[in-house]
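Researcher: Can you fold this with adenosine-5'-diphosphate in place?
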Amino acid sequence: VRGEDELATLGRSFNAMADSIQTQIRELADLSLVQQRFVSDVSHELRTPLTTIRLASDMINDQRDAFDPATARAAELLHAQVQRFETLLTDLLEISRYDAGSVQLEWEPTSLAHLAEDVIASMQQLADQHGSDVRLVAPGGYSPVEMDARRVRRIVRNLLGNAIEHGEGRPIVVTVDSNSSAVAIGVRDFGLGMSPADVERVFDRFWRADPSRKRSIGGTGLGLSIALGDARLHGGSLAVWSSLGRGSHFVLTLPRQEGAPIEASPLRLDG
Ligand code: ADP
């Protein structure tokens, strides 16, 4: 019957289409694997010469008082750019580890509030340079929760660094709180803030807001994408509220128990 023939033909063309889509997906996956390996290989290859360059630039920079002003300035610039390059390589390697799915968290019981105190103390000098007063409000979050402390410290350092850098010297409030299922840390500034379009892109790799805001020596635009990767590896989340000219509020939420679902709105850290 004609209808059956048509159905069979249709079926065959559907199958062919499905095959072709599958092949394309496989090719794309291969391509992204090649890309991942390329990024990882290049970063590894650059590490060794860069270490030598850094040692040399450290030496030159240490002697800069003995140079004429122009050479001293060049030594200083070299030193800062080499440091920036090292940060970029470290971040790229980290990103390629996420892409390869090869990151293993090192879980240890950690007090988020104590961790926040440590990070704030370690960044006091930077805060002073920007005239920012960093306050910690920690009604909860002192009791230990399993987390990869090194990675969580890095997230908090990143959030606080951004708040200081974009905070226009206004106060910064760090809040740590917890409930039965989660602990959360919020970093809030009252500085430049971001437009809704900026907020959409803030976790994108290499993204940085409007060039006019950039310092001559700036970050890599990878900090927040790494922070989000770390939050997700913990089964947690990283959220942002921001308003142009009024400031930003980033909140990292971590489940108390590995793999436990986080309540939709566990803590009061919003808005
Ligand atoms: P980096 O700090 O290296 O530029 P991040 O990924 O940490 O990279 O941040 C990306 C961009 O998001 C920053 O360059 C900045 O434009 C914007 N941003 C991040 N935090 C804030 C903040 N607290 N206030 C305003 N803008 C911010």
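Model: Folded with adenosine-5'-diphosphate in place. The CA atoms of residues 2 and 8 lie 10 Å apart.
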